[in-house]
Amino acid sequence: MTTYAIGDLHGCHDEFVALLEQLDFDSSRDHLWLVGDLVNRGPSSLACLREVMALGESATTVLGNHDLHLLAVARGGGRENRKDTLSAILAAQDRECLLDWLQSRPLLVRRRSEGLDDTVMTHAGLLPQWSLDQAAELAGEAESRLSGETAGAFLERMYGNTPACWRDDLDGIDRLRMIINVFTRMRFIDAGGCLEFAAKEGLDSAPGGFAPWFQFPRDDDPWLLFGHWAALQGEASARRVRAEALDTGCVWGSRLTALDLESGRRISVPSRQR
User: Matching PANTHER family, A to Z (predicted)?
Assistant: First the structure.
């Protein structure tokens, strides 16, 4: 069995199918890890969602910020943006089944191997100030709210850039919003773990006093898999933790990338987007 971690699909279904063919992927034998943002911006978000859901136990995916945006539009009173490509999902006859499945996805996946360091997948990364156990507990808090009876109210209030700094005594919507932002929107942080939301380009766009989250050391040594940051083009430069950037900008015309978790080999197919 081979496990492959794949970067953000963003509705690039043709490239996803081509990559699976390149991998000679067999759902009865192999497994996929997907770093989130299955939908939006690309032309075939509905097909991507159906394809991954149909893989059943052969695919594990975490929620990305665009996946949460779809849920907020569909179930939390959110509004579509001009660049969104979600209309086919929202109009699909099987939309409720698809949305139920998506809403039940985790924010963090952790694989423990005897004698080896943990492998952890999130969409945007892992705050250096959080231990793995703490991160898993905090992810569980937000996941419980997303799967609970008040999920719609939470999705409606999920958006926002405050608070930007984690404190253990945060509570209510502030606590949940911060958890969501770390797992799905984080790029640059300062030494205290405060998030900066305006800069979204490459490493040279870092505001003063801020750096990519993976350039700060941790007290442990997990293997961290993340997407979200297409401008990195798969390179977590000057990293001080074992981090693998997997979003290689397929929807922006670059490529879709898979990482073989056993061998460390990367396999890519070119984008078919303009």
Answer: CYTOCHROME C5 (PTHR40942:SF4), PTHR40942
Domains of the chain, start order: 3-270 (3.60.21.10)
- How high is the pLDDT of residue 116? 59
Report the DSSP beta bridge partners of residue 249: none
Cα–Cα nearest to 186, from 65, 10, 67, 33: 65
- Please list, in sequence order, all residues whose beta carbon lies within 8 angstroms of the beta carbon of residue 43, skipping any fewer than 6 positions away: 11, 12, 13, 85, 273
- Distance in angstroms (rounded) separating the CA atoms of residues 233 and 220: 26
Contacts 24+ apart (CB under 8 A), 109-117: 109/33, 109/60, 109/62, 110/136, 117/220, 117/221, 117/222, 117/223, 117/242
**Distance of alpha carbon 226 from alpha carbon 117, whole angstroms:** 17
The total number of residues shown for the chain amounts to 274
The continuous run of DSSP H or E covering 154 comes out as helix 151-157
Query: Quick check: helix, strand or coil at residue 92?
Result: coil
Residue 189 tokens read as 């942080």
Strand 3-6 and strand 211-212: the pairing is: unpaired
Cβ contact 64:106 at 8 Å: no
pLDDT of the residue at 149: 87
Encoded amino acid at 55, one letter? L
Under the banding of pLDDT at 50, 70 and 90, the label for residue 117 is confident
Lowest mean pLDDT among 28-42, 104-118, 140-154: 104-118
Q: Residue 36: name the closest of 215, 202, 228, 263 by CA.
A: 228
Tokens of 28: 């009865």
At residue 115, the pLDDT reads 55
